[in-house]
Amino acid sequence: QVQLVESGGGLVQAGGSLRLSCAASGRTFSSNAMGWFRQAPGKEREFVAAISWSGVDTYYADSVKGRFTISRDKAKNTVYLQMNSLKPEDTAVYYCAAATYGSITFRVNAYNHWGQGTQVTVSS
């Protein structure tokens, strides 16, 4: 059974940092681009960051550029999202996802494996 399991969410004050992890099991995603998305209450799921299969290329939403960093460790079959200078508007459930191909993409429908999500709450 293929699974993506996120961890590392929690409650943090504005200006603080969190590091999210996404561990894959059941298969390797070394040939797939990986992405992070988030969904706040009452809002649609939105793209946050993506990384190519090689890890060389990354892409960020404008709202997180310069504050968040996506990375991957192929040996551990794990993807990370380092989040710094967090703001209350970053509060959401964060989802990890695996794309159907290797190049980076921000399109939700390009991702066919999703984790269950981890809650990130930033207090002001």
Write a structural description.
This protein is mostly beta strands and 124 residues long. It has no helices and 11 strands. It has strands spanning 3-7, 10-13, 18-25, 34-39, 46-51, 58-60, 68-73, 78-83, 92-99, 111-114, 118-123. Strand 5 and strand 6 (58-60) form a beta hairpin. It starts with a strand and ends with a strand. The mean pLDDT is 95.
Helix and strand string, N-terminal first?
EEEEEEEEEEE
Overall pLDDT score: 95
As a percent range, the share of strand residues is over 45%
Count of helical stretches:
0
The count of DSSP E runs of length 2 or more, i.e. the number of strands, is 11
The amount of helix comes to under 10%
The biggest beta sheet is recorded as: 7 strands, mixed
Span from first to last CA?
40 Å
| Secondary-structure-derived class | mainly beta
Rg over alpha carbons:
13 Å
Fold blueprint:
Blueprint: E1 3-7, E2 10-13, E3 18-25, E4 34-39, E5 46-51, E6 58-60, E7 68-73, E8 78-83, E9 92-99, E10 111-114, E11 118-123
Parallel strand pairs: 2-11
Antiparallel strand pairs: 1-3, 3-8, 4-5, 4-9, 5-6, 7-8, 9-10, 9-11
Question: What distinguishing features does this structure have?
Answer:
single chain; four-stranded antiparallel beta sheet; 124 residues; seven-stranded mixed beta sheet; globular; 11 strands; mainly beta; 50% strand
Briefly characterize the structure.
By secondary structure, the protein is mainly β. Helices cover about 0% and strands about 50% of the residues.
